[in-house]
Amino acid sequence: MKNQKESKISIRSGSKADISAVLEIAKTWLAAFDPDGNNANGFLFGAPYTHEDLLQIIEAGDLVVALNNEAEIIGYFLVDNFSNNPTSILYRDYLKKLLPENERICPRAQIAIKEAYQGMSLSGKLTTFLKERVRERYDGVFSIVSLQNPKMPVHQKAGWQIIDQNDDYYFVLLHL
Predict the structure, then answer these.
(1) How far is 54 from 51, CA to CA, in rounded Å?
(2) For residue 91, what are the CA distances in angstroms to 13, 24, 98, 132, 171?
(3) Nearest to 74 by CA among 9, 147, 133
(4) In this structure, are residues 86 and 47 in contact, taking their beta carbons and an 8 Å threshold?
């Protein structure tokens, strides 16, 4: 098999056909969270997205995916301004408290990349692609990153700025 690092990567808008693969990647990273702090490879937290949530996000044009040369989805980046996902609702509440005048700030983002493809600058590539797709509707994207997540420097390199933090989270903003 060809080395993963040598694979040609492409980025495109997400489609309904991508939902199962996106949910599987998210499930892997949600399961990776270790409350005891052994999170060296990163993780996701919160309520998982549903098939219906992702359909809404795709219809809004707010999902992009990365594919390897076998057309396998290896990562994704989504923004969520309207789903009823409990974590998204929590993010909207945090955003209202931190930035009350936030009409053009999307209140949630989620990015995940299969472990075998990390270290290939996919986070930055997905971010660049998504920014072009959503900047007409949003001035920025808000998100929350656990203080336990060792990938925060990767997010900062992609342009995320820490705007606040508490004992558990970084509150971050990506200007578009």
Answers:
(1) 5
(2) 24, 23, 10, 23, 10
(3) 9
(4) yes
Domain ranges of the chain: 4-175
Tens digits of per-residue pLDDT, 46-92?
A: 889 999 999 999 999 999 999 999 999 999 999 999 899 999 999 99
Query: Tokens 């997205």 correspond to what residue?
Result: 49
Give the separation between CA 51 and CA 85, rounded to whole angstroms.
Answer: 11
Q: Sorting pLDDT into bands at 50, 70 and 90, what band is 114?
A: very high
pLDDT tens digits, 122-143: 988 999 999 999 999 999 999 9
CB 79 within 8 A of CB 109: yes
Dihedrals phi, psi of 174, to nearest 5 degrees: -110, 115
Could you tell me the pLDDT band of residue 1, with boundaries at 50, 70 and 90? very low
Topology (CATH) of 4-175: Aminopeptidase (3.40.630)
Note whether 82 and 58 are within 8 A (CB): no
E strands within the chain? 10-13, 63-67, 73-79, 105-106, 109-113, 140-146, 161-165, 169-175
| pTM of the entire predicted model | 0.89
Looking up tokens 């606040």, which residue turns up? 164
**78 beta partners:** 63, 110
- For residue 1, how many other CB atoms are within 10 A of its CB? 5
Rounded to 5 degrees, φ, ψ at 97 are -75, -40
